[in-house]
Amino acid sequence: MGTGKKSEDWSDAELEAAVDGYLKMLAIERSGQKLNKAHENRLLREGVLRERSKGSIEYRMRNISTELNDLCLPYIVGYVPAAHLGAGVAHRIRAAMIAKDAFNPDDYAPTANDQELNAKVLKLEQQELVGTPRGIEKPQRVSGTTYTFLRDPLVKAWVLKQANGVCEGCGQDAPFKQPNGLHFLEVHHVKHLANDGTDLVTNAVALCPNCHRRCHHSTDREEFAASLYTKVKRLKPE
Ligand SMILES: [Zn+2]
Ligand SMILES: [Zn+2]
């Protein structure tokens, strides 16, 4: 497009300029002001992006939407997320986003440590989560004193927010509130991670402790697990 250069050839400075322009536009849109995308595009082409065409900048903006969408962060409505890029460019776009404080990568990094996971979940639960997390198709087994799995904090936070304090197994309110004011529910993987279940929102439910124990220890645990698929529409049997 335009210069004949490949999209991978964008320099870090160019990617940062694109991210900077994007975040500026996003702030305008989020504040309810009218966004003039063509004007902002022109400004970028008068600066660091002088070698880029209007079309290639527009496409870059959609790449940035893709990365924000993957993090359940709001993106500019007019820049529909484009198909995923190769890991190399996607990584460089994320680095530019981090450099511009668009998000904190630590908040999203999967962890096998329960305490760490819950600290991340707590932070993510307090922000607006747009769309649905991509999750982890094949959670990586990590060896410690016992086997455990790398888990996506975004998936757990999203499932808890969806449940909104009501157990997805029995429909009752969570039994109590935590000191931080949030309702206490546990997130269970309907097909257990140990049985190669995914860490996707289509395999995770928020349950009260009774329903959670029932899933693991009751004589009717299989029937109860099966009933979750009818009760919770987003679940998909694996
Ligand atoms: Zn319950
Ligand atoms: Zn469980």
UniProtKB/TrEMBL annotation:
HNH nuclease domain residues: 154-213
Keyword annotations from UniProtKB, A to Z: Endonuclease, Hydrolase, Nuclease
GO molecular function ontology, one term from the record: nucleic acid binding
Listed Pfam families: HNH
UniProt cross-references to InterPro entries, sorted A to Z: HNH, HNH_nuc
UniProt-listed Gene3D superfamilies: 1.10.30.50
SMART domains, alphabetized: HNHc (SM00507)
This protein's name: HNH endonuclease
Native source organism of the sequence: Pseudomonas laurylsulfativorans
